[in-house]
Input
Amino acid sequence: MVFMNILLAALLCALCGPGDDYDALLADAAAKDLQREEAMRSAHTALDDGDDERAVALARRARMLAAEIAGDRERARVCLAVLVPQLAVTLDDDEFDVREQASARLRKLGEAALPGLLRIRRAPLTPETRYRIDELLGGITVDGEGRVHQWAVAAMASSEYTPNDWAAKQAVGPPDSSEGDARTAWAAKDADGGIEWLQLRYALSLRISRIRIRENLTRGGVVAVDVVGPDGTRRRAWEGTDAGDAWLELDLKGVEGREVIVVLDTRKHAGWEEIDAVELIGDPAPEK
Output
């Protein structure tokens, strides 16, 4: 498997070209994007001033920049596909400093490296490589069936009891609240205010097979779950009756996304409903 990763990296490297660099390509795309936005603003100003010829030239410039940005980002994507396997190979290098440098570089790549690391993690690995990749995945795990499990990395809500205790951010990460009232879980501002929602973002986009919602107080208020798809559209993935168990487990039938919105009707049961954590389980979504 390691040999195949090296071979893949070598083939992709030929596509990247010797002058290409992931960080430089992203920086170039960002700079061009600013130029494109300025060209579009100037084109609108020129139109307002009645200078149609200049407006057309600026709009043409903006389209050219947009094409260049798309090219830079595609080359960056290819370079990333090269870079992650190359670095992963050195996670088990004989030299400790080399292993540390590879881990640091992968960590700097952040969420962009996660899909590649996850593909590598699902293959047979040495204990050292497996340990380092698990550390880099930051709580994302793979079960015996190859399904990915992850906890939220960010959250927001329709309301929250306070900005800190019982805030939306308390639903980030794995469960850390005991059964019953806990300031380390999310609660809405009002106990029985009606429809409330908790929106959670995850590091990886998945084809979600299941969602698990940990309700630690006044259970039974969840009425729907929506998923924000890759196109940014919010879609209803589940609607029904919450049985009121400590864990509400729902089948989402492979709907794709990395953001979910848990919708509650807080009038169903008297008192504050609290949610401690929400787990997504599924298969990695295909890269776009």
